[in-house]
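Researcher: I'm preparing a figure for a lab meeting and need a structural model of a single chain. I don't have an experimental structure, so a prediction will have to do for now. The sequence is pasted below. Please return the structure as tokens so I can convert it later.
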Amino acid sequence: MGFILKLLKSRFFLISLAVALLLSIVPGVLCAMGQGSYIRSALVTVSTPFRWAFTKVGEGLSGFSMYFRTLEDLRDENEELRAELEGYKNLVYDAELIGEENKFLNSFLGIKEEHVDFLFEDATVIGRESTNYRTVYTLSKGTLHGIEVNMPIITEDGLVGHITEVGATWSKAVLLTETASAVGGFIERSGVLGVVEGTYELRTEGICQMVYIEPDSDIRVGDKVVSSGIGGVYPRGLMIGKITEIKMDEASRTLTATVEPAADLDSVAKLMIITEYNIYSERED
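Model: Understood. Here is the structure written out token by token.
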């Protein structure tokens, strides 16, 4: 009750009440006197700023709505472009894979034409184990694919090494630069024989050496070394590498030649395993 009495006595309440009475009585009186147009004019005048403000607010809200719609459209377009770009990337990647596969198959066919008695099984390097003593490659083919120990492995460039261990779906191979590797070789130009072997000192440089070469042999730097077929593991005619240095071994009084492998042993990814060859024809001449 005290609050109501205080409200009735307040100046704000009295002024508000007077304004309300004026707004309710004056229009009625003016209308009764036929002056309604003044009321409409006054109402239009008073309401114009508010209508302008409401119009601007509406335009602003419409602009915000358009902005967000445009932003959403741009986001959708970006997603479509991103998906399209990924599709193109996949096409390029697939084309590169196909190109690499065609290159590998062409080299495969070239070797097959040169060695018609060879049977091959292609494989991929799926692991590399490197220690201070030797490097071993793990390949993607095993006994289920007819792979056996001592089978030679090659690339289109030349000899890589041979199989040393076999599982059902995998096999391990040692490189020709390792100390456990030795292959009979001969100089393609002159026919000089020797043995190409890996050594502990040279393996870290990715090279090997040809030993047991007679001191008066016709051998030069740059000569190509090819497998001789002697020893029963490697067939005759596989490219091993080229001579880069020749020196005399004072202890044995024979020549020793440094050999740079023709195959890039550090980056080989796909290769071929020779599963069968005619050992007799390879040893002829």
